C-alpha cells in the first residue's frame, strides 16, 4: 500500500501546487487591474502629464501609470506587445506606424497638442543668435557640441534636422551634433553644460531653469509639430478611456497650456 499512499500524496501535492499557481495568476491579474492604465508618452510630455495625472487622482482617486521615452522607442515596444493602454507620440509618423500594423484603436485617435522647437544654451550664455537662412550656428557653438535627440528616429531630432537643412545650416554642424536617446536627454546635456547649445521643444526649455532660449525656429522650416494620442488595440483597462477623456478636458487644457503646449481642438469639462 506504500505505493498507493505515495501516488495519492503526489496527486495532492500537484493539486495544491496547481491551486497556488492559479491563485497567483488571479492575484497578479487582480493587481494589474488595481493599478491604473499604462500610458506610453513622449518624453517631452513629462512635466505636463505628471501634473495632469496628479490632478486626475485628486478628482477621481484613480491614477495612470506613465512611462516616458522617445516616441520611436515606445512605438517599437508596443509593436513587441508591451502592455500599454495608450500611446501619445510627439509626431504623426510613429502613430501612423502603429496604425498601419493595426496596433491602435483608430476611432480613439486624435491630434492632442502642438509645440515649437527652439535653440537653447546654458543659462549663463551671453551670446545671442538670430535664426535665419545660413545663420552661423557653427560659430555660435565654437568648440562645443549641439545636443539633439536622435535625428533619424526621435521626433524632436527629426524636426531639428529638417529645420537646419531648410536653413542650409546642417552641413556646417552635423559633425558637432551630440545625439541623445530622447529630447529630455538632449536637454540635460545643455543643462549640465556638457553641450554648448541644443535643439529641444519650447516646453522642455521652460521646464529647466538651467537653460535659456536663444532662438526660435520658424514654423515653416519643419513639418508641423503634432502630438497624436490613441488607445492601443490591446487596451482593456476600465480606466483607459476615462483618462483619455480627461486629457481632452478643460482642466487638462489649462495644465498643458501652462507648460507651453498648444492645445489642438476644444477642451471640454
Topology at a glance:
Blueprint: H1 2-34, E1 38-42, H2 46-60, E2 65-69, H3 71-79, E3 86-88, H4 92-100, E4 110-114, E5 117-122, H5 137-141, E6 146-149, H6 155-166, H7 170-173, E7 177-180, H8 183-191, E8 197-201, H9 202-207, E9 211-216, E10 226-231, H10 240-247, H11 250-258, E11 262-263
Parallel strand pairs: 1-2, 1-3, 6-7, 6-8
Antiparallel strand pairs: 3-10, 4-10, 4-11, 5-8, 5-9
Helix pairs in contact: 2-11, 3-4
Task: Give a written overview of the molecule.
The structure is a single chain. The protein has 269 residues and is α/β, with parallel strands linked by helices. It has two domains: 35-114 and 227-263, Periplasmic binding protein-like II (D-Maltodextrin-Binding Protein, domain 2); 117-221, 3-Layer(aba) Sandwich (D-Maltodextrin-Binding Protein, domain 2), CATH 3.40.190. Helices cover 44% and strands 19% of the residues. The strands form two sheets. The protein has a six-stranded mixed β-sheet with strand order 2-1-3-10-4-11. A five-stranded mixed β-sheet has the order 7-6-8-5-9, sandwiched between helices. Helix 2 (46-60) links the parallel strand 1 (38-42) and strand 2. It is globular and about 55 Å long.
> If strands are numbered along the chain, what order do they take across the biggest sheet?
2-1-3-10-4-11
Classified by CATH, the class of the largest domain is Alpha Beta
Strand residue content: 15-25%
CATH fold description of the largest domain: D-Maltodextrin-Binding Protein, domain 2
Give the SSE order as H and E letters: HEHEHEHEEHEHHEHEHEEHHE
CATH architecture of the largest domain: 3-Layer(aba) Sandwich
CATH superfamily heading of the largest domain: Periplasmic binding protein-like II
Overall tally of structural domains: 2
